[in-house]
Fold these 2 entries.
Entry 1:
Amino acid sequence: MSSEQTAYFERLRMHLGLGDPVESDLVRELASHVEDRVGQLVAGGTPEARAREIAFAGFGRPETLAHLVRQAHLVTPWLEALLGAAAFLLVGLMIGLGLWQQPIAAAAGGTLVIALTLYGLWLGRPPWFYPWAGIALTIPIIVGYVAFAVLQRETPLLLDGAAGPFGLAGFAGALLYFPVGLVVVAAAVLVAVRRDWLDASVLLSPLPCALVWVIAIQRAGGITSAGAALTDTGALLCAVYVCMAVAALVFLRASVRSFKVTTLIGAALVLVLGSTLLLDPGGGLVAFTGRAALLLAFLLSPALVARHA
Amino acid sequence: MAQTAIDRRDRRDEMMTLSSYLTQLLKGNTDVLILSLLQREPMYGHQILQELEQTSAGFFQVSEGTLYPALYRLAREGYIRGKWAKLATGQERKVYALTKKGDRRLGECISTWSGFAAAMERVTTPHP
């Protein structure tokens, strides 16, 4: 490959952001096209250097070509879009049917989420990967909740000097968990932002749902005794997750970026409505608006990160 | 003298408008052209451009910057499928083939196009 060719493809890849497997395949294909075109022009009497210039002129500026290729990749095939939406549907069903309280079902669900996330990672992060990775990131929230429960239980014992060695270890672990969890989420978002901030927003979208769920569990008496008290809450949360699944499907199938952003905002508003009905039904318009603003700022924050990255 | 310059400029503007009209027509039909060629036989990118130019006697000159995004879009939508294959020359090329879905889509597009062309013909043909 000539140095001009290398420079062109490097610039192209810089603006593509589609992941290594897709980009390598694309560059391989375009390089073979250049080879064919140059061969054709040289056979027609054009000097090789000029033939190469003509061949690259056909592609246009690498930035423009990258933009057009990215546009072409905005639409996710139906099957992949359904797979992406299935992440929210799975959690919705687990909450709605109370399966999260059955250890085997909960473990099977968690394993499926982690397995599909790792598989997506191995495939080079296709669009369906982000909802699954987002759900996988909610696992630290659940663990964080358990850590919070440990802190709540052990702190008074520790202050009285009555904590045992297991209590001390649990306290230290729980204390360490929060910064580590934050670093994990921040790192995942930063990696996603490098490709497209919208992917990072999708990655973040399940986190507020999980937070609402955890608050609901805490209000219903904690993770071990929340069961029966969460029947109505579970139904509403299940409905929110089903709405999120529909939003994910629409988002992945949308071919225009502005429509994707609108879908994301719409899904956020459904979540705010659901969380208000669940946690603070008499909160009033100001509280609702505040919550909506906070959630939108959280979900759209990757755009700011991308701008400064 | 001044009138000639104005006429020349008007003519140039007219040509540019016509060229833009043709570009728009081509842009709206690139997918159908690609699908039609792939219905004949599976082809790779450079081959598609060559076939398009030869079959249309040089009328359709699609640039690489238009072709490849269109190929990727059609592949994403499931109308065509690209696969690396070894040619008789020993070189490897990504060869695109029409899928069943693409074949159906092409049939629909051609039918719409036929209706459109017939209607255009009826409207643009001067009355005797």
Entry 2:
Amino acid sequence: MLNKLWRILSSHTLALWVLISMTLVALAAGSLPQSARLSPKQQAEWETEWEATASWLDTLGLSQIVGSDWFAALCIILLINLTAGILASFSRKLAFYRGDLPPNYELQHRGSMPDVPSFLGTPPKIVGKQSRMRGIPGLFGLTLFHLGIAVIVLACFWRGALDFSDFVELSVGEVFSGQPDKFQRRQPPPEPFDAVLRLDRADIEVRDGKYMGEYRGHFSYQQAGGPVKQATVVSNQPLRLGDFAIYPKQNFGHSARFERILKDGSVRHLYIHFEVESEEWGEPWRGEKEQMIRFDNTPLYYSMSLSNTVPPSFDLKVNQDEKLVFKGELQPGDVADLGVYKLRFQGMVPWMTFNLALDKGIAPIFAGFIITLLGFLLHLLFWPRRVEWTITDDGWQVRAWVRRGDGAFDAKWTAWCRQQGLEPT
Amino acid sequence: MTLFFQWLVAAAYLLAAGMLIVCSCRLVACDRRPQIERVAVVAASIGLLIHIAMVVVRGLDSGQVPVMTRYEDFTVDALSMASVWLLAQWRWPQLRPSGVLVLSLAAFVVIAALSYSRGVFPMSPALRTNWLVIHASLNSLAIGFGTVALAVGLMLKEDRMDLLGRFMSWTFLFWCGMVAAGSYWASIAWGRFWGWDPIECWSLGTIFIYAFVLHLRMKPKWRKGYRSAVMGVVPFSFMMFTTYGLVFVMRSVHGQYVFQ
């Protein structure tokens, strides 16, 4: 029973079924709308326009394939098949190495030694046995390749539990210490973000009205109560903060900066972000926005527009319970009294988007990639060949073990046998 | 001027392919075939030298490795096809007839490149990395080896089926390398090594289909004849669709680069 189970789990046929299933899954995930890939707006559009199809895909678990249980089950089958396959193939490779398997080629002859070409090594000079093994790295190349895949799958499972990645919009001068309301999904990371950082300067340059020239964020940061340091975050050079890392994302705009003066006299900063298209960056611009801003359970409905004139101007209309609280144009230094608090307009600063991601678990994945590629490269570059000569008193025997598909050996063997007037076996 | 050289390269490849057709269809006497094949190789080599020079000049002109726009992508992919074939036929002269398909395809891709803008565009910050060069070069190498594998398979010669497997294996290696390099690049540029973007999913699908076919080839009946040839065409089609076709039908993060 156990033997049968082992044969099924390590079988080549199971590998073929898993591979074709994984192909279909990858194509479905790449072709069907996936909720993990769509923005909330795109998701809503898809569900409205294709209501029946969307619900049908959802029922079948095809709207988020990679997060589904059946995909996880398929990955587990892949992992089991890989592990069983690695163990089974390793023992076969070991048998090949030791010469315990039946040889692929064998020739026996009574009489004197023929001329031996170099691909068959050197036979012993006296009666006895001598073997030579070449291309050993190639023997274990595929085992390494499969091991690498198993490492990747395992690391993905491990990382899946830790995975965290979310976008944070930061204005110049703004301080960020991992507060959940700054994240786009408003969910805190699974591990505490033990750092404080402030965006000191933003370098955003758009060339010819559409090409991103520079996109850099200059930060001051303090990690785990340590010294304050400076760093620049630029594409392909993330800022690593413990297990977290900050990456730039090319969404940016202008931010209206306010001081919110509460009734008890305390002051808090408020940044209102306006997204700017690349073509409009550096050009005369005016952005409009409507937003509900809640303070102490009091919702205020802001209707705003910001212009990048010199000095910048901010048109503000605020309603509370459909009652107009404030309407007017603000310039830097002006104060708007909204009743529950006052707002002092301080001016306009750029804001940038960053991706904060938990970087844990990434190293084993890339280690898996390296093992995989290295293993396959060894498999392609080295052709394992084991040749064993036995000299007896009245003749000789040569046996060879080679990899299936070693056409070069086959051709040389056949040619040599014919040259000796012997029938190749 | 670029236009002239582009057509010249295509003409050289087509001339070589034409000569190889003459040999393959046995339109000339047996004893003259090796001589004509050698002339075809010389024509293809001249085309390749002009092709390399064209890519180098383009790189010097733009001040960046020319693998960013679709025009550059096509041009480098065609270069890879021709180079891999020339190297393959040098190592295994019996593969020369496969040049009919490989060189014709290379010429077609060189001409197809002209339908895209030949302008030079500034690279966005995320593209200013050597990982782009590694990622794109591995993709081109995979296409080069894949095209030769396809042609070897379609020759339907029993004695060359092992070479089909070998070329498919190299294609698989380069494609996996391309995905791994892209994944690492994504991890340092965006903070995620895998985003299930359509092109990423199809690339993974291509890996699985190549793995499937390579596993299938371990069964003797799938190593020979038309089955083997068909199994060479399927993963190649996946690879070509993922590289060239997918961005036309799906929105992908890769699309914003290739259509610049």
